[in-house]
Write a structure and sequence with these properties.
Elements (H helix, E strand, L loop, with lengths): L3 E6 L3 H12 L4 E7 L2 H8 L6 E5 L7 H7 L5 E6 L5 H6 L4 E4 L4 H16 L14 E6 L2 E6 L3 E6 L4 E5 L3 E4 L3 H7 L5 E5 L2 E4 L5 E3 L2 E3 L4 E3 L5 H7 L1
Parallel strand pairs: 1-2, 1-3, 3-4, 4-5
Antiparallel strand pairs: 6-7, 8-9, 8-12, 9-10, 11-12, 13-14, 14-15
């Protein structure tokens, strides 16, 4: 078995160091990065192959639970927290285990073994329960901004960045169009052009190779038209 790539997401340096020392004593694990907040973790998850995330719940700006809910493709997760009252929420999101600080090495090993068993099991693990999430986080101006799917009218891809047009504002992000295709719910959004993704609920009319939204008219690419028409 290859080593499992881990990240630690915790705003307390002492807690980070404790978990790091435990990881360093387990041959099956390797630590990629220690993150102090969800923004740092968000970047790592989209640039590195992460197998396991040790996630604190009580963090500034975005809680661990909200951050986890926002991820459409999360790695295996072990919650680490000083607050046992959040256990139910954690298990609703199908986390592997829930560790209450201070964490002993023995309890840490028990949680990690669950993850190792999942990755080494000869049969596919049970499917995760589907949790309805109606929002996503995007990075913009050194912040993670929460955007509800229903508020997005359309997304425009530029050369080096993407514009998200919501019902109230425009947000610029360096995420790619492929990122949005992978993270937006496919039953609610459709790509209509190499430069545009639209919210299907925003369509007012379609005429020829043009779609009229609530606030804008956009071109429909010839290779995307058939798919769009089959969706409405």
């Amino acid at each position: 078995m290859n080593k499992l790539n881990c990240i630690v997401v915790d705003d307390e340096p002492l807690a980070q160091d404790v978990i790091e020392s435990y990881i360093n004593n387990i041959n099956e694990l390797t630590l990629l990065k220690k993150c102090s907040n969800a923004l740092e973790a968000f970047e790592v998850l989209h640039t590195e192959p992460v197998d396991l995330m040790f996630l604190d719940i009580s963090m500034p700006v975005i809680s661990g639970i909200d951050f986890l809910r926002s991820l459409r493709k999360a790695p295996a997760v072990i919650i680490t927290t000083a607050y046992p009252d959040f256990a139910v929420q954690g298990y609703e999101l199908d986390v592997m285990d829930y560790l209450v600080k201070p964490i002993s090495m023995e309890r840490f090993m028990k949680a990690v073994n669950k993850v190792i068993e999942r990755y080494t099991a000869p049969v596919a693990p049970p499917q995760k329960q589907t949790v309805r999430v109606d929002y996503m986080f995007v990075k913009s101006d050194q912040k993670l901004i929460k955007i509800k799917f229903a508020d997005i009218e359309y997304i425009e891809g530029m050369k080096d960045y993407v514009k998200i047009f919501t019902r109230e504002r425009m947000i610029v992000t360096l995420h790619t169009m492929k990122f949005f295709e992978a993270n937006l719910p496919g039953n609610e959004f459709a790509r209509i052009h190499k430069s545009y993704i639209i919210n299907l609920d925003s369509i007012k009319s379609i005429a020829g190779n043009e779609v009229e939204l609530q606030k804008q008219k956009l071109p429909i690419g010839s290779s995307y038209k058939e798919n769009l028409l089959s969706r409405i």
